Structures are given as C-alpha cells and as structure tokens.
Amino acid sequence: IQQVFKQLFYMINAVTLNNLLLRKDVCSWSTGMQLRFNISQLEEWLRGKNLQQSGAAQNLEPLIQAAQLLQLKKKTSEDAEAICSLCTSLTTQQIVKILNLYTPVNEFEERVTVAFIRNIQKQLQERNDPPQLLIDFKHMFPVLFPFNPSSITMDSIHLPASLNLDFLNKV
C-alpha cells in the first residue's frame, strides 16, 4: 500500500508541476495559495492513514517549493537569496521558467523583472542540475517485496515423482 501511494503521489507531483511549467495562466500568487492548501490536505490525509513513512509526502516536495515560489516576494536580492535557499528540489531551469511565466492577477502584484531573474540565475549557476525542464511522469519506482523466511526447512520437503524433477539432488 505504501509503495502504491508513493507512486501515486509522484505522479500527482509530476503532472501538476509540468502543467505549472507549461501554462502561464496558472503561475500566480493565488494558484500558489491553492496548491499549498491542497498539498496540506494530502499530507494530512497521509498522516490520518498512517502512511507518513511511505515516502509519498517527499515526492510532493518540488510541488510544495513551486507553490511557495509563487507566493514569495520577488523584488530584492534578499528575496532572490531566499528563493535560492528554499527551492532545492527544483532545478534552476524550473525556477526561471516559473518566474518567467509568473502572471499577476491583480493590480497589487507586479511582474518579475528580468534583472531579478538574472540575479537568480547568477546565484544558482554553481548548481549541477539536470538540463530537463519537465518531470518524467511515466517514471516507475521499483516494487519491493519484503522477505519473509519460511519456517519449513529444505530437508523436510518431499518432491513428488510426478513433477519430473529427478535432476534436483539434496546436498
């Protein structure tokens, strides 16, 4: 069950983040608020079902950081430093793309300036990020089956002759 929810939450993260990276109409402060609320509901559900150890919540970390990025101030060099220290699960390319797509929804917000985005790029240039922008939502985690040793010893097993396993010998 834990492995299923880990995979499911990975897919939720990948599809949602990819949509955020491809659609300008959803890159806004209000979307960041809605995303963060929805993610907190998912995290609360995991806690309620005692699935915190499944790794499902950790798969949502890039989406959490993207939601926080949409909500943060984006003006000063201190804001840029805060973004760089906060967004460790997002690649530089993803951060820059979200900042470029950021669209104010009311008159109190402003677009992100080119100088601010260049400041972010300069601060993050030491990162060794993969060059991909989108997350592979088809990625599958390996299924792990727990080992449960049998209480039956090999000496006590009798192989019927009808199985034609004469080539097997007891050692």
UniProtKB/TrEMBL annotation:
<dbReference type="GO" id="GO:0051020">
    <property type="term" value="F:GTPase binding"/>
</dbReference>
<protein>
    <submittedName>
        <fullName>MYO5B protein</fullName>
    </submittedName>
</protein>
<dbReference type="Pfam" id="PF01843">
    <property type="entry name" value="DIL"/>
</dbReference>
<dbReference type="InterPro" id="IPR002710">
    <property type="entry name" value="Dilute_dom"/>
</dbReference>
<feature type="domain" description="Dilute">
    <location>
        <begin position="1"/>
        <end position="126"/>
    </location>
</feature>
<dbReference type="InterPro" id="IPR052072">
    <property type="entry name" value="Vascular_dev_regulator"/>
</dbReference>
